[in-house]
Amino acid sequence: MLKRLKREHEVTYLSFVSPDDPVEATDLADEYSDRLVRVPREEPQRFSARFYRDLAFNLGSPLPYALQKYRSAAMRRAIEREIAEGGHAVVVCDFLVPSVNLPSCRPAVSLLFQHNVESMIWRRHYETETNMVKRAYFFDQWRKMYWYERAACRRFDAVITVSRADRDQISAEFRANEVYDVPTGVDTDYFKPADCPQSPTELVFTGSMDWMPNEDAVVYFAESILPSIARVVPDVSLTVVGRNPTKRLLALAEQNRRIRVTGRVDDIRPYVARAAAFVVPIRVGGGTRLKIFEAMAMAKPVVSTTVGAEGLPVRDGRELLIADDPEDFARAVVRVLADAQLAKRIGEQAHAYVNEQYGWGRAASAFAKICERAVRRKSPARATERVAAH
């Protein structure tokens, strides 16, 4: 979307960088921004002594850990410098996280781009957790996130969401001033059907594997769904594609010969193209799942939970199959693997639907109009200036 916005607006992009970031990430910034401002940051490794120390200190903080760990005096100073120099018509916080570093005094129009309702994710972690210690921790994080998110949404001149469901929830629960939604988009020139051999019993799941809802989805699928599929399709396997797989997932792959964890890959398309079906067994999450539209654009049959497809205007039995109970999910996967005509029909209908309705151009245009509307309302004379994205 930033690539599209850059065609008509000047974009300054502020971002944390860490020693583990791929070198080419900086080079690619030219594609979506006119200027990149980098702020160094190192995050403690998960399950290290420093990680547990920070979790312990967070118990006394009003901020949830997922936000507190990103507080940065260096980032705040970088944002303040950009604002002080002037010329930016809009300051956009991309996700809720950057808002912890946004100065309270900001003359530019400020927008919060909410890819999820973050507090809802933590509430679902709490609701699905069975370990009582973890359940208590998730409850604490949920309540902290709820109150912070509620206050943050009210501080901004406008909030932009990625689905009508999120828009309605933020309006109802947080009473934000102005809340809009933009359509989810997908690069249909990049994600398209591939003419390559397909493995008839291989499933695929993609996503950042250090994000807890994705980790939970894979573990849930492996423990509660995959065994039922294997009783009918003995050669079934799952390939998990995404960066930073946790130790739990790596151990799961070692213990279960049906599961392969790739880690970071340069291009997910060959893995999606080779699979017979794309699974989204997500139980915890918010916003919309771009991975579903990417798979649909490649004409892959998708099997998802209701939460996994939440916020997407898709229909069960037409663009994908939806199932929530583990046995129902397993039966839906078996149907797709066993019935080539069904898989082809769903994949083709999904591909046509995404191509016709959800290219990135529509999303970028809608986003730009919301920005311009907010600028005109607050400062009519500055409606066509620069955009600063963080």
Strand content: 15-25%
- What structural class is derived from the secondary structure elements? alpha/beta
Number of domains: 2
Shape: globular
Instruction: Please tally the helical runs, counting DSSP H or I stretches of 4 or more residues.
Output: 15
Per CATH, what is the topology of the largest domain?
Rossmann fold
State the helical fraction.
40-55%
Low-confidence stretches: none
Provide the residue-averaged pLDDT: 91
The radius of gyration over CA amounts to 21 Å
SSE run:
HEHEHHHEEHHEHEEHEHEHEHEEHHHE
General description of the model:
By secondary structure, this protein is of the alpha/beta class. The protein has two domains: 2-185 and 360-389, Rossmann fold, CATH 3.40.50; 202-357, Rossmann fold. The chain has 15 helices and 13 strands. The strands form two sheets. The chain has a seven-stranded parallel sheet with strand order 2-1-13-3-4-5-6, with helices on both faces. The chain has a six-stranded parallel sheet with strand order 9-8-7-10-11-12, sandwiched between helices. Helix 10 links the parallel strand 8 (237-241) and strand 9 (259-263). The mean pLDDT is 91.
